[in-house]
Amino acid sequence: MTGRRIPNLIDGESREAADGDWIEKRRPIDGELLCRVARSRAADVAEAVAAARRAQPAWAELTPVARGDVVRDLALALREHRHEVSEIVAEETGKPIELALGETDAAVEMGFFVAGEGRRSYGRTMPASMAHRAVSTVRRPVGVAGLIASFNTPLPNLAWKALPAVFCGNAAVFKPSEHVPASAHHVAELWHDAGLPPGVLNVVQGLGQEAGAALVEHPAVDLVSFTGSAATGRSVNEAAARRLAKVCLELGGKNALVVCDDADLDDAVRWAVASAFSNAGQRCAAASRIVVFDSVYPAFAERFTEAANEVEAQPVISEEALERQLAAVRGASATILAGGERLDRPGWLLPPTILEGVAPNAEISCTELFGPVAILYRVAGFDEAVAVVNDSPYGLTAAIHTASVHRAMRFAELARAGVVVVNGGTHGSEPHMGFGGVKQSGTGWKEAGVEALDVYSDVIYVNVVSDPERV
Ligand code: NAD
Asked: I need a surface site. Which of 19, 48, 121, 186 has the fewest CB within 10 A?
């Protein structure tokens, strides 16, 4: 792919940005130039939105069953090309190919789940106080969807937004992260070849402040679905609010995993390592706060550190991200148990890093780093653990390790998070499970699951009044 140029995909055609500008995309594994990416601005976004507007009415005329059939074909095409697509993802993110393959398979599964909604997407019927009045709900597309995603798991991020959006009868403009341009372009081309009509899914490349902001502000974009940081989400929400567009925000996390004194420590260590450091900690559901009961703290800290030291460092997405994470670690008044320094070789590599001795309300405890950094907190018992878990601006996921069903159930009642896990990791979702957080982790909409249909469609109440005298 080196030296390649990644253009926009508008109306089924590859197009350079109107200004002819390009951004350089470098490889996380060694910092070498990977490709040049179209630097789109408002004019390119306007073209893509116009293409979507033109394509949407005919697409929406298809029945949900027919649209579901097309989505199934897209999933099958992705499955058929899983190796080539995963190699692109591995190269542009720096993640191991096995991880990229797993993510591609997850995106395929999302496609199959959404396709199945073609024969379900059930509505509701309800009684009415007036006699002979039949009331039921139907789903209608919202119109043109502006979709903006993060870089961390490029294909699930694309599939979670684009597939339910188009299934629901919308046409979409997808703005991938500038860090992962190539996989989105490749998959969108693949999907056109697999039968998605031109204009139904357009991909506009570029920087967030330029292409992303223009998409959010475009008056013909009826719905904005955004996945990214809380800071960007806030500005997206403000811009969309000015024109009262429907907005779904899936934002960050500072997820906590609690280790009680009755936990199976081997299991707790295994899950904590996977939760904190897989994908170099670049997961919205990553466990960056590990809250440990006093009596097992020394044993857990020792074993967690040992296990973390065995994890091979994976690059983070950019030099800038690495510098931000290093600055936060250096600026924290903390003891470093593992990692903490950049590896002395090419690439953006920070090994798994563990800190202790940090106050739960210190800046680093409240700020999402989106890198391989976990902080250990020592607590007296259950109540203090729950207080630390909830002392966060975020509320995406939370986990507890305990042998007690009573503690587990009480934790599920008290933890302020969109996903609660007992004796597992702070992992995300499967295609049929709605996923989304509370507090600053999102606007309350869920992605995936049948809940995603609520984001990408309007629910209309249809009333039919009949007269039995006129039979
Ligand atoms: P980011 O906020 O920097 O960027 C996200 C996307 O927004 C990118 O495509 C970017 O180009 C675009 N963007 C940037 N500025 C914009 C603007 N002013 N207007 C419109 N678009 C703009 O986030 P990131 O670094 O790509 O991703 C990391 C964040 O994403 C973390 O906070 C992580 O927790 C979150 N995330 C959340 C979920 C979830 O489901 N809740 C999933 C994955 C990642």
From this structure: 19
Q: Would the CB of 440 count as within 6 Å of ligand 1? A: no
- For the sheet containing 144-148, what is the strand order? 13-15, 8-10, 201-203, 171-175, 144-148, 223-227, 246-250
For residue range 343-368, what is the model confidence (pLDDT) as tens digits?
A: 999 999 999 999 999 999 999 999 99
> Which pTM value belongs to this model?
0.97
Tens of pLDDT, residue by residue over 434-444, are: 999 999 999 99
Measured CA to CA, the distance from residue 417 to residue 241 in angstroms comes to 25
pLDDT of res. 326: 98
pLDDT digits (tens, 9 = 90+) for 75-112: 999 999 999 999 999 999 999 999 999 999 999 999 99
What are the residues whose beta carbons fall under 8 Å from the beta carbon of 457, sequence distance 6 or more?
A: 139, 140, 141, 142, 168, 169
CA nearest neighbour of 84 among 101, 96, 68, 67: 101
3-state DSSP call for residue 219? coil
303: tokens are 């074993």
Residue 140, pLDDT above cutoff 90: yes
Q: How far is the CA of 333 from the centre of ligand 1 (A)?
A: 28
Q: Give the tens place of pLDDT for each residue, 259-281.
A: 999 999 999 999 999 999 999 99
What's the rounded Cα separation, in Å, for the pair 323 and 393?
Answer: 23
Burial status of residue 451 (CB atoms within 10 A of its CB: 0-12, 13-18, 19 or more): middle
In a 13 Å sphere around the CA of 333, the CA atoms on its Cβ side amount to 4
**What's the CA gap between 93 and 96, in Å, rounded?**
9
Amino acid in the structure at residue 310: E
User: How many CB atoms neighbour CB 306 within 10 A?
Assistant: 13
CA-proximal residue: ligand 1, atom 10 (nearest): 208
- Whole-angstrom distance, CA of residue 30 vs CA of residue 49: 36
* Residue 284 falls in the annotated catalytic set: yes
Measured in Å, residue 227 CA sits from the centre of ligand 1 at: 5
316 Cα to the center of ligand 1, angstroms: 15
CA distance 432 to 451: 9
Which residue type is seen at 133? R
CB 250 near ligand 1, within 6 Å: yes
Residue 150 Cβ < 6 Å to ligand 1: yes
Write the burial class of residue 405 (CB in 10 Å: 0-12 exposed, 13-18 middle, 19+ buried): exposed
C-alpha of residue 98 to centroid of ligand 1, in Å: 24
250 is catalytic: yes
Q: How many helices (H) and strands (E) does the chain have?
A: 15, 22
Indicate if ligand 1 lies below 6 Å from the C-beta of 370: yes
Tokens of 404: 């007690």
The SS3 of residue 129 is: coil
